[in-house]
Structure prediction request, 273 residues.
Amino acid sequence: MLFRSALLPFPVAAQLQISARGASITVGGYFQPQYSKSSADGQDGTTQAADDFLIRRARLLFDLKVNDRLDGRIEPDLVGGSAGGQLADIYLRWTAGRELRLSVGQFKRAFSQFELVSPTDLPLIESDGRIEGVSDCPGVAGVCSLSRLAIRLQFDERDIGLRAEGDVGSRIQYMATLTNGEGRNTGDVNDAKSVSGRVGVLLAPSVRLSGFGASHDYLAGPATRRASALGGDLEVGTFRKGFHLIAGGMSGDNWLNGPDAGFFATQALLTYY
Prediction:
């Protein structure tokens, strides 16, 4: 049995707005310190339990608004990446109306709600289910969650490309992305692109049922192959009022373990605010 405790898994946020004529820049950010202790062995293979003070996220937010149709975001992640920082979001968005918004840049792919929600709202700071002292999830081994598995198989999380989203009527929302498929801050390695999409239906004012799918391109030696995944999620309630539930499942090709391997994963997060 593994035991994990965490202290301060919440963000400290701030915001400042600068306006000039019809344009504005909103400068903000958030800082997420954490103390975490686990009963698992340390990363070095010893019997010493993982015991860490760490900064999980430290980000600046620059939200740009040129006019009613053109806006964008630049979000540096000051603690992400091997070089001590990298970009999380950076995109420019054009709004034709509530039915269509087009973005170009780096953003979250159209896949599961577990990754699309902001980490400033997650009551558990880690949507990937990590436990200090236990190895990450390569494919289907190690400690996994639906989020971690989808990210490792490159179906989910941030990528570079194009995104279309909007509302159809008052009950249906859609999102579709066409991206390199290599993840954040990484160029493409072949002449193919990854596609993903999700459609959500508002069943009640605080109940949304969504389906999502993706086709990911990857190199297998000199050849480009494709892997696919399908899933769905249900969201009931909101993060900041009473009970809130996100539950979902997905299945598809576990291409990291071979062209004929598959996977199935489910995950649920129930909270009360």
